[in-house]
Amino acid sequence: MAGYYNEGVLYQWDDERDLALLDKYKVWFCDRKETIRCFMPFDLWMIQCNYDNHGIPYAADYFAIPENKGCDWRIKDGWLYITGIPTTEEERKEREPKFRERIAPWIEDFGKE
């Protein structure tokens, strides 16, 4: 399993599995801003595996962002499709105190050297 909460393998878009996830995720969108051309194998290894697949889910999990558990993504026809992983109402209530505690030092230090 890729990441912390992802629903499957990072690279492989599967119509049956990933379209079924629309009930949970609500949307998949093609990220053409960061991907101005189709991915090449080195791009996938260097950027997607080592940055997106570890850093983004870790940050969302560490900060316990109440409304979101990070992102899920797939590669389809060479293009990156991405979605947010929503939380349930119960998860939001559980994550909010931890989020406030963990984000406080960042807010208090904002704009200081």
Number of domains: 1
The overall pLDDT, averaged over residues, is 78
Estimated structural class: alpha+beta
Strand content: 15-25%
Q: Which term fits the overall shape?
A: flat
Q: In whole angstroms, how far apart are the ends?
A: 39 Å
User: What is the quaternary state of this protein?
Assistant: single chain
Largest sheet: 3 strands, antiparallel
Total helical elements: 4
Low-confidence stretches: none
Strand order of the largest sheet: 1-3-2
Q: What's the total number of strands?
A: 3
Q: Please estimate the helix content.
A: 40-55%
What integer value in Å does the Rg equal? Answer: 16 Å
Q: Would you list the SSEs in sequence order as H and E? A: HHEHEEH
Commentary on this structure:
This protein is of the alpha+beta class. It has one domain. The chain is 47% helix and 17% strand. It contains 4 helices and 3 strands; from the N terminus they run ααβαββα. The chain has helices spanning 15-20, 22-25, 41-63, 89-108, and strands at residues 29-30, 68-76, 79-86. The chain has a 3-stranded antiparallel sheet. β2 (68-76) and β3 form a beta hairpin. It is flat. It starts with 14 loop residues before the first helix and ends in a 5-residue tail after the last helix.
Question: Care to give the gist of this entry?
Answer:
The protein has 113 residues and is an alpha+beta fold. 47% of the residues lie in helices and 17% in strands.
Defining traits:
3 strands, alpha+beta, 113 residues, 4 helices, 17% strand, three-stranded antiparallel β-sheet
